[in-house]
Design goal:
heterodimer, A: alpha+beta, Alpha-Beta Plaits, two-stranded antiparallel ribbon, elongated, B: mainly alpha, Formate dehydrogenase/DMSO reductase fold, 65% helix, 2% strand
């Protein structure tokens, strides 16, 4: 089994619903919750999040495009965060999920340094490292109705830009979407073999624009325009 | 990367201790006249004390030190675990070795423990460096220069400590002084090579690579006009600081960087070299030279962290690592 997420960069609207749903579910979860907040109502609020959405502009005007970019743990096949962990707190399950055993972690930060994606965050309250659990306490919970056995971020997404499934199953939705749309993993050159896939955004539409040089400014330009106007007036 | 003082102190002081213990082991193993028999146990006690101070400082970096004992458990995969195991082994071997320095009849046994101390000190130095050198997301650390620099700088400050003790004991230390100068030259060469490797941007990762648009925003399967796209961060998604910005998006002011670099060259290299060449053997000067060297190496280690650009910075808007 190779459980993971597919995130459609074409339809993601950047609303942060996935991030807040994640915070809500995992904050109350016994797996690694609570997700501590510091100075929540003060001047310098901060806190632990498993999922962060960033926003980029790609390409140059007029062919530029805004891409909303949610990032969480990629549940890498060759996860260095697990390799570098000196205590054995970080581990990879048979279903592919990378987890941190909160009872074993000593808070040395080395796994966070080893992760190129910034997926791990230290909870200063518990002194332990925390990360996306792929909602391991939802997806395998047989008391939930089957459609709800999905990570909270996937269920919350109003744009249906997130998909959960098994990449080892070629017939699964995540596998077919990845194959059809050319899904890609992030920073493959580092060799971590990330499992999560991103579906690329469409080519931005080419908008016709006036390519003539902008009129110069300043007093001389104003005078030129005045003379032009006078000429047009005289020619009428 | 944010330079945490506990780690800067640990790597520098522990490096000096390991360098001093390894060199002391060599001196005792071959019975070199660089350090008198009465000065050797003193040097050993100083080395062990510094090693313990470094180890104590390293635990200050842990957010949950109650579980520190578990760090001995992943010896097969983790360099940090290897460092922990070999550090304890080294302190054990060094304590026996230094104790045997006092006992005149313990010749062969002393040689065995001297050899053990030398080998373990070198292994711990390499393990400490490999913690950083093994991290692929940080190209300024993921280079073979990192372990070389840790080993050489550790021996440079360790040799200075031995020379200080030798002079305090009025031993004939000309050879030790020559060794110090040779290590100073090597240290300069290694740091020069390290910084040269860091300036080589061929291994740098760009923001476009990090968010997967380096080949354009088209799906790779679709043919057509692929262009090199430029990407810019519009919004990081959070208004305040986060663990990620605190830990990885550390920015050192240019002027402060200049001061740290000057402190490394002046206090870490030039002042101790002047002391060795000038042969001012008054106790306050000797102590000041050793302290200046450690302070200079603190500056060097702080720069090692501050100049390291993790790939997480790309997601926060950096153009390249």
């Amino acid at each position: 089994m190779k459980l993971g997420l597919v995130i459609d960069l074409d339809t993601c609207v950047g609303c942060h619903a996935c991030a807040t749903a994640c915070k809500e579910w995992n904050g109350a979860s016994a797996i690694s919750g609570p997700l501590s907040d510091y100075d929540a109502y003060g001047p310098d609020p901060s806190g632990v999040w498993f999922n962060r959405v960033r926003h980029y502009e790609v390409g140059d005007y007029p062919a530029s495009k805004t891409i909303n970019f949610p990032m969480s743990c990629m549940h890498c096949e060759d996860a260095d965060c697990v390799t570098v962990c000196p205590t054995g707190a970080s581990y990879k399950r048979a279903d592919g999920i990378v987890l941190v055993d909160q009872d074993k972690c000593m808070g040395c930060n080395l796994c966070a340094w080893a992760c190129p994606y910034g997926a791990r965050e230290l909870d200063a309250s518990s002194g332990t490292m925390k990360k996306c659990t792929l909602c391991v306490d939802r997806i395998h919970d047989e008391t939930l109705p089957e459609p709800e056995r999905q990570p909270a971020c996937v269920l919350a997404c109003p744009a249906h830009a997130r998909f959960f499934g098994d990449f080892d199953d070629p017939a699964s939705q995540v596998s077919t979407l990845t194959a059809e749309r050319g899904g890609f993993g992030l920073l493959p050159e580092l060799g971590y073999a990330p499992v999560n896939r991103y579906l690329p955004p469409r080519t931005p539409p080419q908008v016709a624009v006036d390519a003539s040089p902008a009129p110069p400014g300043g007093a001389a330009a104003a005078l030129t325009r005045l003379i032009d106007a006078a000429r047009r007036f005289a020619a009428r | 990367m944010k330079p945490a003082f506990s780690i800067v102190f640990f790597t520098v002081v522990s490096g000096a201790a390991l360098g001093a213990l390894a060199l002391l082991g060599v001196i005792a193993l071959f019975d070199l006249p660089w350090l008198s028999a009465s000065a050797r146990p003193v040097a050993g006690v100083v080395g062990i004390a510094l090693a313990l101070a470094g180890l104590a400082s390293s635990t200050l970096h842990l957010a949950n030190p109650r579980n520190a004992w578990r760090s001995f458990s992943r010896f097969r995969t983790s360099w940090l675990s290897r460092e922990a195991v070999f550090s304890i082994a080294l302190v054990g071997a060094a304590v026996v070795f230094v104790a045997l320095l006092w006992i005149p009849v313990a010749g062969p046994l002393r040689s065995v423990f001297a050899l053990l101390t030398i080998v373990l000190a070198w292994i711990v130095l390499v393990c400490t460096a490999m913690i950083y050198a093994s991290l692929k997301p940080i190209r300024q650390w993921h280079t073979r220069w990192t372990p070389v620099a840790y080993v050489v700088l550790g021996h440079w400050s360790g040799a200075l400590i031995l020379l200080a003790i030798a002079r305090y004991d009025a031993s004939n230390s000309v050879r030790l002084a020559h060794l110090c100068l040779a290590l100073a030259v090597t240290a300069v060469a290694v740091k020069w090579g390290y910084w040269r490797a860091c300036r080589d941007e061929r291994r740098a990762v760009t923001l476009e690579q990090a968010i997967g648009v380096a080949q354009g925003v088209h799906p790779p399967a679709a043919a057509g006009a692929r262009s090199v796209m430029q990407a810019r961060l519009l919004d990081a998604g959070h208004g305040g600081r986060t663990f990620l910005t605190d830990e990885f998006v550390f920015r050192l002011a240019r002027r402060r960087r200049g001061w740290l670099l000057a402190a490394f060259w002046a206090a870490g290299i030039a002042l101790p070299v002047l002391w060795v060449v000038g042969a001012w053997w008054q106790t306050p000067v000797v102590v000041a030279a050793c302290l200046a060297n450690l302070l200079g190496l603190f500056a060097e280690r702080a720069l090692f962290f501050a100049d390291a650009r993790h790939t997480v910075r790309l997601f926060h808007g950096d153009r390249r690592t």
